[in-house]
Amino acid sequence: SSGINAEYGASGKDIAIGLASAGYYCSESGTDNCPEKESLEGRRNKIDDKMNNAPASYFGHVLKFTKAGSMNYLCTRNNNFSNRSQKGSIWVKAGNKLEVKTRSEETETSVA
């Protein structure tokens, strides 16, 4: 497999670049849904060290998990490591069960 989502033309690397840059870059080098001028290779102005030129909001991605496993996540933009902490874990279980745990609560949701 090429790692590219045939419907949207985004590879796992493209999605990671978008997530890591809060949407400032939409892919590595441009896709059908990401103009070259907004890609990592195509943008003339690079993201600054504090991400101050990143968008205030981000469209994100809808992902379908196909294998059981776990993933940790956190928000590096709004996290001062004391009273603001946006992080959690996602566990994908066999049988279409998704369990999401955050620092303050635990929930379990069935997904189709």
The major sheet is characterized as: 4 strands, antiparallel
- Following the backbone from N to C, one meets helices and strands in this order, namely EEHEEEE
**Overall 3D shape:** flat
Helix run count: 1
Which blocks of ≥5 consecutive residues have pLDDT under 50?
Answer: 1-6
Please state the structural category. mainly beta
Mean pLDDT: 76
End-to-end span in angstroms?
24 Å
Percentage of helical residues?
under 10%
Strand content: 25-35%
> What does the radius of gyration come to?
16 Å
Q: Widest sheet: strand order? A: 3-4-5-6
The total strand number stands at 6
Could you walk me through the main structural features you see in this protein, from its secondary elements to its overall organization?
With about 110 residues, the protein is mainly β. Helices cover about 10% and strands about 25% of the residues. The chain has one helix and six strands, in the order ββαββββ. It has one helix at about 10-20, and strands spanning about 5, 10, 70-75, 85-95, 95-100, 105-110. The protein has a four-stranded antiparallel sheet with strand order 3-4-5-6, with no helix packed on it. β4 and β5 form a beta hairpin. It is flat. It starts with a strand and ends with a strand.
